[in-house]
Amino acid sequence: MLQDIYCNTPAIILAHGYVGEILGKTVHGILMHSTVFNTVALIDRNKAGQDTSEICAGVTKRIPIYDNLEKTFDLCPKVMILIGDPDENNLEEIKICIQNNLDIVNSSFKFLKDFPKLVQLAKEYNVKLIDLRDVPRIGRWPDGSILNINAKVVYVTGTDCGLGKRTAAVELVREAKKRGIKAAFAATGQTGIMIGCDDGIVFDAISTNYSAGAVEKLIIDLDKRGFELIFLEGQASLMHYGGSTVLTLLHASNPHAIVLVHDPQRKYHAAYGNSDIFKMCELSREINLIESLYLPGGNKYNVVAICTIGQDNITTIKKQVELPVADVRNNGGPSIILDAILENINNQSLLFSNNLHINSIMQIQN
Fold it and tell me: CA–CA separation, 202 vs 359, rounded Å?
């Protein structure tokens, strides 16, 4: 995990064309939640001089945005985080960062290690090149040991990419910890690992054959560490033409409760164009489909709450489904969602490993 190497380490983010955009969710996630990196500057020639608190969804920090690297080195960064592929458009900037003794953290499927000149330069300046998606081959098959855990699993999924699934999971972990519950954030993407997690995998970099085993192991390892409530970060969407392989996350985690993140304003899955194949699924239908997919020998799935952004969306969703709806970025939002989670688990007559009934925990904290 990156937190074994870095802790609140000063970093710059090279993100031309990503700041303030839907595909810039990694940038926004790092700014909002990272305990691994302390971002001191962004580099995006398209957004230079703008206010991150105004253009980046969910971000309240005001981090300077520059159009080039020159001024950022005065801020003494130790790491450069690369957003987007390393290619001819940014190789010179990567080299300059290495020559200024910055480690490079790369979130792309295109690896820095495949550029011999960068590798040689990194050796010369004794800096690290970290390809987050260059994961070791995982050869573990699922074996059903997920049925033997003591912890309760909450799967935080969504109806699209870039909705705030990771944000919801992190905020719910924070709320659970406030109530004295030993809660864990299980990351499944490179951003979750960069912000800091209790454990994590880069799900989309794992061979399909072994992805269920990797998810099962992630949950089991956290359970062995004594966590009571594990929030698993979702990816893409069950009804997303470009990302429906994430059904594995649902099955392999065997969740005790499911939180769904939704934007009722979206008509098509974001960033994929407007082909009819990418039309958003009706919310009630997606909920019904998720709940119908429980395994014969596993937990029955229950979507217990909906997360969204903004009061207008909350009002719209409440007209569509009879579930608690809240914005976890606003005061009180995480509490509403967590109450629904705990009530659902309580109704299943489940106990935490410390033998405190969930309803009792709620009463103690309130």
Answer: 34
Task: Find the DSSP H helices in 157-295.
Answer: 165-178, 190-195, 208-224, 247-253, 283-292
Calpha distance 224→203 (Å, rounded): 21
Give the tens place of pLDDT for each residue, 19-65: 999 889 999 999 999 999 999 999 999 999 999 999 998 899 999 99
Distance, in Å, from the CA atom of 157 to the CA atom of 26, rounded to the nearest integer, reads 17
Question: Can you name the residues that pair with 123 across neighbouring β-strands?
Answer: none
Q: Sketch out the chain's domains with CATH numbers.
A: 2-131 (3.40.50.720), 145-365 (3.40.50.300)
Confidence check: pLDDT of 350 > 70: no
CA count, 13 A, side-chain hemisphere, 355: 0
* Cβ atoms 47, 68 nearer than 8 A: no
Q: List C-alpha distances in Å: 14 to 68, 172, 303, 340.
A: 9, 29, 38, 39
* 322 contact partners, CB below 8 Å, separation of at least 6: none
Per the CB < 8 A criterion, the answer to whether 13 and 81 are in contact is: yes
Query: What does residue 185 show for φ and ψ, rounded to 5 degrees?
Result: -105, 115
Contact predicate 205/133, CB 8 Å: yes
Amino acid at 282: E
Those residues with Cβ within 8 angstroms of residue 10's Cβ, 6 or more apart along the chain or in another chain = 37, 38, 40, 75, 76, 77, 78, 79
What pLDDT, on a 0 to 100 scale, did the predictor assign at position 364? 39
Q: Which amino acid is at 66?
A: Y
Burial of 62 (0-12, 13-18, 19+ CB in 10 A): exposed
| Cα–Cα distance, 331 to 186 (Å, whole number) | 23
- Helices then strands, each counted (H, E), the chain: 12, 13
Give the pLDDT score at 349. 55
Q: Residue 359's pLDDT is what?
A: 45
Name the band, by pLDDT with cuts 50, 70 and 90, for residue 365: very low
Q: 142-191: per-residue pLDDT in tens?
A: 999 999 999 999 999 999 999 999 999 999 999 999 999 999 999 999 99
